[in-house]
Amino acid sequence: MKKYIRLIILLISIATLFSGAMQAIAPAFVLNFVGAEIDTTTTQLFATIGMFMFLFGGMMIHALYNEENNRVTIIWSGLQKLGASAAVFIGIFNGVFVPLAAGVAIFDLLSGLLFFYYLKTIKSDAVG
């Protein structure tokens, strides 16, 4: 796993960048996918969230080129993924999103955990 973790993190970051861009550009499409109400407020909020996803994805791609000076970036990106997962699960619990949205929440949960695993691997590489 350690051999491929950097590639996995890169793929997650690229997916975050592209899905964030899509959510920023076409929020109604994403809202329809998760079964949420589509109105001017929700589309604006989802577009804003998409913009931040785009930025976090791009930030992680950038950080992968210089891990030594970007540990804080990895920590905050991992926290963003875990927070996004919790937010989607809460949305499902509150009836805002359909249960199918749990796939998004699980992806973000696993991504966040992988980010912290990656952080641990680069710390151990620096020590050893």
3D architecture notes:
With 128 residues, this protein is mostly helical. The chain has one domain (5-123). The chain has 5 helices and no strands. The protein is elongated.
Helix share, percent: over 70%
Tally the helices. Answer: 5
The number of domains: 1
State the low-pLDDT regions, or none: none
- Global shape: elongated
Computed over alpha carbons, the radius of gyration is 15 Å
Topology:
Blueprint (H helix, E strand, L loop, with lengths): L4 H21 L1 H7 L6 H24 L7 H23 L8 H26 L1
Helix pairs in contact: 1-2, 1-3, 1-5, 2-3, 3-4, 4-5
List keywords for this structure.
single chain; 128 residues
Question: What's this entry about, in short?
Answer:
This protein has helices at residues 5-25, 27-33, 40-63, 71-93, 102-127. It is mostly helical.
